[in-house]
């Protein structure tokens, strides 16, 4: 991409960007107000100019290949030693723009895979799971219809809070709208939902109070399931 601005214009972009506390949208307006006779750059040009100056120390679009290679190796080495770090923390530690870190990781075919949660197991639990699996396979070998004779059940608790994943809840806007969502309520309520699957039939769902008692389960099988 050829350079379309002079060094003076690039310097003024950086100055205005800092004057506006890093707000690129405000920087565009301020630049147009200060220099009405110039071609006004968009916010992307101003942001890229600032990042390029901080990263390379120059307004030139063409970066020294040796320096760029050293920077990429430094970024990759940092993530090799800290695979669970974030781009934000890496940017602060390496003093490199986040955009550069994202580009380097993408070029190296790295992706931010999510860590999955799993139930904590005690050492003796592994043998119990193995014994159950062997028993199940033995029953299946003796009777191929054995799985259809098992009622698979599960229950879940639903509350007024609902489910909110803050990592996926966001609002795209030019400026922070300071959006909020009510989370903890003074008056709470909860309900348990129980459901089973037997052969190809769905049993339920059945609704219970927050704490299910054995008597409720016995009554369920005696009155509804049977």
TrEMBL record:
<dbReference type="InterPro" id="IPR032135">
    <property type="entry name" value="DUF4817"/>
</dbReference>
<dbReference type="Pfam" id="PF16087">
    <property type="entry name" value="DUF4817"/>
</dbReference>
<dbReference type="InterPro" id="IPR036397">
    <property type="entry name" value="RNaseH_sf"/>
</dbReference>
<dbReference type="GO" id="GO:0003676">
    <property type="term" value="F:nucleic acid binding"/>
</dbReference>
<protein>
    <submittedName>
        <fullName>DUF4817 domain-containing protein</fullName>
    </submittedName>
</protein>
<feature type="domain" description="DUF4817">
    <location>
        <begin position="8"/>
        <end position="58"/>
    </location>
</feature>
